[in-house]
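Hello forum,

I keep getting stuck at the same step: I have a sequence, I want structure tokens, and every attempt I make locally crashes halfway through. Rather than fight my setup again tonight, could one of you with a working pipeline run this one for me? It's a single chain of 491 residues.
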Amino acid sequence: MTRDSRYTVSDLDYRYLSMSLPSLVNTVPCTSSYHPSLPFPDSLDWSSLSSSLDISIPNLLNATNGIGVHTSVIYGDSIPYSKGYGYSNLNTHTVPTSDTIFEIGSVTKIFPVLMLMLLNHKGLINMHDNVEGLPYPASWLMLASELSGLPRECPAPCELGCTLSSKEVLKLLPQDPVVPVGSLPSYSNVAYSLIGRLLEPVVGMSFEEFCAKHIFSPLGMESTGFDVTESIRERMAVGYMNSTTPVTLHDVGWNRPTGGAFSSPHDLEQLIMHFLKLSRKHPAEFHEMLVPHYMFGDGTGIGMPWEVTTLSGYVVLFKGGYVASPKFQISGYRTAVAFVPALNFGVVSMENSGGDATAFIADMLELLIEPISKQIAEYRENLAFLVPKGFSSDLIGNYCSGNECIATVYNSSQGLMISVGIGETSGDYLLQFDHEDGLGMNFKMHLKHTDRSCLLMSLLSMEAPIVQVFPHNQSISFIDWNPGTFLTIRQ
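Reply #2:
Ran it on my machine without issues. Output:
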């Protein structure tokens, strides 16, 4: 099995100097959270989906011998479903809420990768460079995508509760990789700890401080962190190894970047909401974090730091984590997050009992993907473009990029039609003339200049341009086109 060359990208664009995540998304010239071929939240029937979840989630909780769970569904920038079941504390019979805090285990790995991407974007490091101090050459990207060949755990005496320095840890690493570097994925907790800790000198602060300032605060993740204070402990769900035995919280020390964070359903909803925005706008700075870096023959794969799978024909990016005791017993908490870029939705599941972190969320995805995709398909069947009155004759013709025709406007017995040949909007659509209640529609077409010498076709998702096409005889080129994401075209 070889790495898929489709996922290799050129040098990233370092134009934008701001560090925080929201500022990166805002650099993309579209503020909408919705692709033109995806409906707005109030266009979908969430009541029937919520009813299905209300029945299925308690059954799943019982089937997995769970204690308590909070589950969320995120669609674009909305939260159509957020509800707790069971108990976050067996003594008080408290039901988990969106503000209940859970340990999140390996879901923490998202944060050192985000740190890596931000520093790469700023030009402080190059993710394709080899990491200094390793016993053999391996790049930052390889550490973040499980292709480094590093061992699963940091060698003794630096395991879960490590108090050694990064230099001391580097000296403990074996001289030979577990598998040939870059050849096969090999799960490594120590790789993500190394990313977070070895980048500390670059930013002049600890990994924990960087996350608080440049990830948690900008995203409104006020209940996410690493230091369990008394106020945090009061809001935290009690973790249970079995049906009655509470677990003791412990600090994983140097290994915090790989599995030492806590968070709340609300905060992880914000995180997945942000990844949905990134997946729709697909800024070059985050391309590597949104694609697989290794694909197996069964449709599954490995990303940064995601696991990748396909369900009902849709690519799913997910990450699960459980909290282990010092003796590596699965205990206390299991959390999983996932999102489906093509359908613009994601899910969050947080539990206070041990077990497979991804089993619960996999069942949720199976339950949701088919009805959501069906509703979106029905929505797309009713799409229509709007045309300003009096300009129909100016629109007829081919719209091309080089030798590739991407759209054709033509007359038919039904009226003026547009045939779109790319992306999720592929197909023929009836062009309707603009009218006073046009804002209720999802698409419009506009002319850039009143003299009509330069035709600009903007497919609008309410307020924001998604596609721009210039005159029939004018050459245009693509910028950062990826299937299922925004398409921008320029001169």
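The first strand starts at residue 68 and ends at 75. If your local run keeps crashing, start a new thread with the error log.
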